[in-house]
Amino acid sequence: QNNPGPKLPAFDISWVPNYLALKKDFTKKYYDVLIKLAKDAGSITVATDYDIEGEVIGLNVVRFITGQKDAGRMKFSTLTEKELNDAYETKMNSLNWGQAIAGETRHYLDWFYGINLSRALMNAIKLTGRFKIMSIGRVQGPALNLIVKKEKEILAFEPQQYWQVFVTLTKPVIELKYIKDIFNKKELDKFKDIIKKTAKATTEKTQQIIPPNPPFNLTALQTEAYAFHGITPSATLRAAQSLYLAGLISYPRTSSQKLPASIGYDAILKKLAGKYNAEHLLKRNYPIEGKKTDPAHPSIYPTGNFQNLDGDEAKIYNLIARRFISLFCEDAIIDNKTIKADVDGLMFSAKGGSVKNKGWMEIYPTKIIEKTLPDVNGEVKIGKSRTEEKQTQPPHRYSPASIISELEKRNLGTKATRAAILETLYDRGYVKEKSIEATPLGISLISTLEKHSPIIIDENLTRSFEKEMDAILTSKKDLEKKEESIKEKAKQTITEITKQFEKEGEKIGEELVKAQEEERNNQREQNKLMLCPVCNKGSLAITYSKKNRKFFIACNAYPECKTTFSLPPYGAMRKTE
């Protein structure tokens, strides 16, 4: 019998210095410096990022390195000299214990789920005599399930034929569209004698007032960066973090859409308005705000400091600065016009619009398609008609930005972890492409879990844990009791899951191995280019050499045929359609 792997479940964990857990880690010198400084320190103040991850880091330094039970705590949202000095002068006398225990609880849950469930999957594969690194977690499972559900909808989609009918007026010459799509071809008969008929036309005018979008939180920034520049959520977070560390923007991992006056936005605006030539646009004394809040930080805003930037950092900074300025600009005003024409009870329409006042759209990139239409009222003649045959389209796949937004909407993961979760799904081969497509392995994994352990992909379970951790975050008492309660519930759930895997491990392993083989075969087929011109038996295919870490073209009849061709040394290679 094949080795089933480590015994599960495993809950025996403890905090240790990073350099002991990872022998090649570079952190020992920092650890030694902190030990030395702590010996001579008269008092301890924690100045890590003011969020749950930063609070846990600070807590561990305080209890494991300084040997103290508590410390002072600075709260800040930018790394400007003034704000850091102010934060030190007004520091709290104690750590934010709600934040610290909520963060520690999250660490335990992520470890319990990640290690035990990932090992359970790999143990199942080992029972078949194979090996593959796989992972699943309390957020990774529900996130992949969302993508797979979408993929199944697309695969099951059956397009329907339909028709759109258009007529053109003789005077003025304008094309209007029938207000309904036609799904029964016989219904087209009612339009065959429409030419030269008289229609009764009316023109409706409305004014659309569009206020500025609310300030950026992390999800909105990631969404806009992808929409305008194609920058992935993880790359956006990296660029924003770099800008934050340079003192150019505020803390990026925030859910807030609020901008309190305490940030001093008048001084920031004065600096930015000159740089962006936007003085004439500033009409509001106070910024537009959204509904979302964050107890730790305001929304993302520029500090007013400048540096020469390039690449993603320049694009992300530009978006943040322009969004900030736009909050103080006038509403945009669009004049909309709709022409309706009634032909014997058949209603046609055309819509157009023009920008009356660009307002905030003058500073923030916004696409408005303008279409000028004349006023048309009274009786008009139909000059000609036409039909277009179309097919209904399957649902759109998620993009990296839209899946991040969907996870936020469903309260799955945190603002700081969602992009990393998506990257893991790519790294494990569960999804591919920018328009996110679930691979056979990803689909099989979800199908297997649905059959054998559906609780792993149950987003309600994860959401309930998030709510309990949020309760710790805002709580003032019984923090350790609440932490232990959450951990015990998680242990019970994981124990049940691992028992199920013990019973059905071989079946689970076989299903996953089958999916792996299907994925490999698909990849081989996709990489085939043409019949080998040398041996006329094998096919030339894009191949990857693990030894040289390079792509090249080779005949798949190797070793009988050793024909090869080189490819550029950098970047991934794949066949295009």
Attribute tags:
577 residues, alpha+beta, Topoisomerase I, domain 2, Topoisomerase I, domain 3, Topoisomerase I, domain 4, 4 domains, six-stranded antiparallel barrel, four-stranded antiparallel β-sheet, 41% helix, globular
Describe the model.
The protein has 577 residues and is α+β, with helices and mostly antiparallel strands. It has 4 domains: 101-156 and 399-524, Topoisomerase I, domain 2, CATH 1.10.460; 161-211 and 332-391, Topoisomerase I, domain 3; 218-326, Orthogonal Bundle (Topoisomerase I, domain 4), CATH 1.10.290.10; 532-566, no CATH class. The chain is built from 15 helices and 14 strands. The chain has helices spanning 18-21, 28-40, 52-66, 81-89, 97-126, 140-156, 218-229, 233-245, 265-275, 311-326, 400-409, 418-427, 440-452, 459-474, 479-527; strands at residues 45-46, 72-73, 161-169, 175-178, 198-210, 332-343, 346-357, 378-391, 431-432, 437-438, 528-531, 539-545, 550-555, 564-566. The strands form 4 sheets. The chain has a 6-stranded antiparallel β-barrel with strand order 3-4-7-6-5-8. β13 and β14 (564-566) form a beta hairpin. α7 (218-229) packs across α10. The protein is globular, with a radius of gyration of 30 Å. It starts with 17 loop residues before the first helix and ends in an 11-residue tail after the last strand. 33% of the residues are buried.
The H-level CATH homologous superfamily of the largest domain, spelled out, is Topoisomerase I, domain 2
What is the CATH architecture assignment of the largest domain? Orthogonal Bundle
How would a textbook summarize the main sheet? Answer: 6 strands, antiparallel, barrel
Kindly give the count of domains. Answer: 4
How many β-strand runs? 14
The overall pLDDT, averaged over residues, is: 93
The CATH topology assignment of the largest domain is: Topoisomerase I, domain 2
**Tally of alpha and pi helices:** 15
The CATH C-level class name of the largest domain: Mainly Alpha
Helix content: 40-55%
Which runs of at least 5 residues are low in confidence (pLDDT < 50)?
none
Span between termini: 45 Å
How do the SSEs run, as a string of H and E?
HHEHEHHHEEEHHHHEEEHHEEHHHEEEE
Strand content: 15-25%
**Shape type:** globular
